[in-house]
Amino acid sequence: MDVTASATDPLIVARESFFTPACLVVSAGQSLVVRNEGNALHNLTVDGTWFGMDVPAGGEIRVPSLARVVGANPGNYTFSCSYHSAAGMVGRVIVR
Ligand SMILES: [Cu+2]
Predict the structure, then answer these.
(1) Which class is domain 11-95?
(2) What is the 16 CA–ligand 1 centroid distance (Å)?
(3) What confidence tens digit (pLDDT) does each residue in 47-70 have?
């Protein structure tokens, strides 16, 4: 059987000032969709990686294959909104 990304990519929703879900598990080959359902500009920054991208209010971004973000290092990564991390806008993604 072919193993490909699921039809529905994992989704993180950003609001003021939290992510939901705050913790999720994804396969390295999957994309990740981040949707901003809040009214402020948010972003998604994955600690320890090169990845950081703004998500405008009402907008959506697609993080490319997580394998391209974390390289050969699956595991636990903290992500945050760099604008609101002090307000607790952080989460965790487990890439495997
Ligand atoms: Cu934010």
Answers:
(1) mainly beta
(2) 7
(3) 999 999 999 999 999 988 899 999
